[in-house]
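1st attempt posting a full record on here, be nice pls
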Amino acid sequence: MPATVVVGTQWGDEGKGKVVDFLAERADIVVRFHGGANAGHTVKALGKTLKFHLLPSGIIRPDVVNIIGNGVVVDPETLLQEIETLEAQGFSARNLKLSDRAHVVLPYHKEMDALEEKLKGAQAVGTTLRGIGPAYADKASRLGVRMHDLLEEDSLRERIESSLQTKQVLFREFGKATELRVENLVKVYLGYGKRLAPLLTDTSRYLNEALREGRRVLFEGAQGTHICLDHGTYPFVTSSDCVAGAASTGTGVGPAHLQTIIGVLKAYTSRVGSGPFPTELQGEQGDRIREKGEEYGTTTGRPRRVGWLDLVMINHSVRVNGLTSMALTKADVLGGLPEVLVATGYEVEGRTMEEMPAAVSKLSKARPIYATLEAWPDLSNEEWRKAARNGFGGLPEALQEYCRYLTRMTHVAVNLISVGPERQETVHLESGPPGAPLG
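the predicted structure (as tokens):
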């Protein structure tokens, strides 16, 4: 810090929530900068499991200011429900601020999401049906509603009328009836605006003033680099930019502030929804990792596809994010396997590749080239906690070597290792693993 960005290096679900919660102990401000309620972050702390979709993962630390930036698309109903759930569990949202420039997800966005997925048929992406894509589409089409509009009745009515008019034409064209009416939407969303008004502020100004004062800001990414709209496995991607640079556009903070970029990666790979997955595991071994790793979507509950770690993916993420260090999560899940495989390249149509092809048609044909590493033992939860208390040297030697190997292969230091969901099940190094030169 003072300005640190945390991003996912895979297809999301890397454990960013736990990492952000852990790092928030040394932060003054935590900021979400993109995505919407399609994201799901799980934090286990103080004996409780909390699942966030819009709230930043630092929200349970009362001394940390949490901000939802202008790059997020906000479903006000979902946000208010999340705040109520948080308060019911004994926490407060008094430390939350919300950008007045953030765009709003409305009911017709969710209807459009479902209709578009249905029309795509076999090409459906497998969205969460939370209306995220259509909300970003309205933003780009200049038909969006922003949070400040929820405070002004005339402005809100004008914005909803212009957007809903185009949607109703499409609904009629594809034989879908909608019961949505402008006046009803205006009434409901003015109500949301009244409830959320105390949170609304110019968060760009707030953050820039905080950085000038030397306050420590932690920018929290949602999803992962490889479902990024620009840098992911298009078209099987989300609707926002998930890379570190989006922390600037999604918050109104200049890129010169973004000096520490932490990439989060699981010790294996997972993916929700459709799209190519070169290292995917089928059968008993994949099932074992899925069950032990609790690989079910935080937002949807869908079982995630799982596979071996893919260094082709990770090195792509290193480059497009400008990673300065990495956090390895769920290392405990691979404990007890006979061996651990890591993909170091692909064979595609008879050619060896060390970069991800842009075309998913080629990526779908990629056969991984694996390196085989020694596995580490399957420890109990208490044994992992004890190992973490003893620092890097307390971890099983094979896991230490795994961290050194990743550092050598990516030229980026693995300096945070998570061996369980709790805060205390974490090893944090000031630099990279001992004995692992960066290339």
